[in-house]
């Protein structure tokens, strides 16, 4: 047992450096603090106690005057005491309930009769039962989402971003327990959110039983380290969630190859701070004296692996280039299906070409490009023509740079196509923003894509007002419902016109 003297904030120890740390354990430290006013412990001290999971917090109210010391000088005495400790808060209870219990004011004599060991043992038994219940209840990550609204974001864009990160977390297999928000003119350079919000996050994590904190934006390696040190919980940013989804979805060797490359490129600058063992020299024969630290060794290993994967991606790129050249020699025009993730591209490909591509109401349900032949009867001439239709990986707002780099072989299907069919989920509340996001990504392609046909999908799921607004804003678009097979004949004819325009 250790005793800290001072306020919990003054004696604060980073959660990961505490003697014991875990959802079912107290940390093994008891804190004794003093105060001059006769008042219950302040919330800031109780919050610090909860974040550190202190065994107990004792507040001594000391009088300003008291007995005379020999040789002069006055000293006070303990007028009353308060004993505070944590209590389990079950998920079924109100999340606003305090995670602690504070005793009524009592004398110092009463406090000394408290069996602290018995108190701690009893509390840990209750925490352990609650922890096991949570583990049995759900086997997935229990996630707290944190969103930051800066001055460059509108309220609608911010809320849409939060809804998207929640959907990404659920797609990755996590369970969203709660979402926290903060408004700041710009992110805090060290912790993204303010110091008070970091404390609130740490307390909320304890209260709701979360085991993962996800931010709605990308974080720097230093920000992740600072947040993990103060919150004592694994911190994940938006890119890492997307990478995890890609790792689960990749089926082909090419997809797995590119996902691994993206993950390693993301991990490399984040190796520092993964624990003291990463920065120490290895032990044993042949490792003493000057030499590489474990951190340097792992960084070198990952760099070599990245180089090898990039070579394999280049080979994949060359292979797909040869396949495209072979198709071009056959004089068969190609159209690439592009659009925001979950817009219905794979569903449309399946219905138009009788393909058997996996579809689901999920973000990034398919990663690997699929090309199928689409025969179309020209309504004016009656001639039968063929088009190659390619399904591509879905786009997303602010597509993480590691994914753009790693999936360049896949995205080349977009730049090398004769034309693009841009599919939009009209039923999504942010469909206009999604159009802008896709067009922004296309504008950053190294090769300018061909002509684009806009197709607004899922018209069966929208009201008349939305449909009217879409017709006004996108008069040249084709309106369809892939799942209900609405407007597909018109879409086929528009695709023929698109190809004719591309070759004029």
In short:
This protein has 15 helices and 17 strands.
Folded structure, characterized:
It is a single chain. This protein is an alpha/beta fold. The protein folds into 3 domains: 2-137, no CATH class; 142-236, GTPase HflX, N-terminal domain (Rossmann fold, 3-Layer(aba) Sandwich); 329-502, 3-Layer(aba) Sandwich (Rossmann fold), CATH 3.40.50.300. 40% of the residues lie in helices and 19% in strands. The chain has helices at 43-52, 108-112, 116-137, 155-171, 195-208, 221-231, 238-249, 253-267, 294-329, 345-353, 401-406, 408-416, 431-443, 464-473, 488-502; strands spanning 2-5, 29-35, 56-62, 67-68, 74-75, 78-86, 100-102, 142-149, 175-183, 212-215, 235-236, 334-339, 370-377, 384-391, 419-425, 452-457, 478-479. The strands form 4 sheets. A 6-stranded mixed β-sheet has the order 13-14-12-15-16-17, with helices on both faces. The radius of gyration is 30 Å and the shape is elongated.
């Amino acid at each position: 047992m250790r005793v800290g003297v001072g306020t919990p904030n003054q004696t604060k120890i980073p959660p990961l450096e505490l003697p014991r740390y875990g959802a079912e354990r107290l940390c093994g430290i008891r804190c004794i603090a003093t105060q001059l006013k006769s008042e219950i412990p302040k919330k800031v001290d109780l919050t610090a106690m909860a974040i550190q999971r202190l065994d107990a917090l004792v507040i001594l109210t000391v009088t300003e005057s008291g007995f005379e010391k020999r040789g002069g000088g006055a000293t006070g005495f303990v007028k009353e005491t308060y004993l505070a400790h944590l209590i389990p808060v079950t998920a079924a209870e109100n999340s606003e309930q305090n995670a602690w219990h504070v005793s009524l004011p009592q004398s110092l004599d009463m406090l000394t009769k408290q069996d602290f060991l018995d108190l701690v043992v009893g509390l840990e038994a209750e925490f352990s039962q609650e922890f096991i219940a949570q583990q049995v209840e759900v086997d997935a990550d229990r996630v707290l989402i944190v969103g930051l609204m800066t001055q460059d974001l509108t309220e609608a864009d911010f809320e849409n971003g939060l809804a998207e990160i929640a959907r990404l977390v659920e797609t990755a297999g996590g369970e969203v327990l709660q979402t926290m928000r903060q408004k700041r003119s710009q992110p805090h350079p060290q912790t993204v959110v303010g110091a008070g919000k970091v404390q609130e996050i740490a307390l909320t994590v304890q209260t709701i039983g979360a085991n993962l904190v996800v931010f709605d934006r990308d974080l720097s390696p230093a920000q992740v380290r600072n947040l993990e040190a103060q919150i004592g919980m694994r911190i994940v940013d938006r890119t890492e969630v997307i990478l995890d989804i890609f790792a689960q979805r990749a089926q082909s060797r090419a997809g797995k190859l590119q996902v691994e490359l993206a993950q390693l490129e993301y991990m490399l600058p984040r190796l520092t701070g993964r624990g003291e063992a990463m920065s120490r020299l290895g032990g044993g024969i042949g490792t003493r004296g000057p030499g590489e630290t474990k951190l340097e060794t792992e960084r070198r290993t990952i760099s070599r692996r990245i180089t090898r994967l990039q070579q394999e991606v280049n080979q994949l790129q060359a292979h797909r280039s040869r396949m495209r050249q072979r198709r071009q020699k056959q004089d068969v025009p190609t159209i690439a299906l592009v659009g925001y993730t979950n817009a219905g591209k794979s569903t449309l490909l399946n219905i138009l070409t009788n393909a058997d591509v996996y579809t689901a109401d999920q973000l990034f349900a398919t990663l690997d490009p699929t090309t199928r032949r689409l025969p179309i009867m020209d309504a004016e001439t009656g001639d039968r023509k063929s088009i190659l239709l390619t399904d591509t990986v879905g786009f997303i707002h602010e597509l993480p740079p590691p994914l753009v780099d790693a999936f360049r072989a896949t995205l080349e299907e977009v730049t090398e196509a004769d034309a693009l069919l841009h599919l939009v989920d009209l039923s999504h509340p942010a469909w206009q923003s999604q159009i802008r996001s896709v067009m922004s990504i296309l504008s950053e392609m190294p090769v300018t894509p061909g002509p684009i046909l806009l197709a607004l999908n899922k018209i069966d799921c929208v009201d008349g007002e939305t449909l009217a607004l879409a017709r006004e804003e996108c008069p040249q678009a084709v309106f369809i419902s892939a799942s209900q097979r609405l407007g597909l004949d018109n879409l086929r004819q528009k695709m023929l016109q698109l190809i004719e325009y591309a070759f004029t």
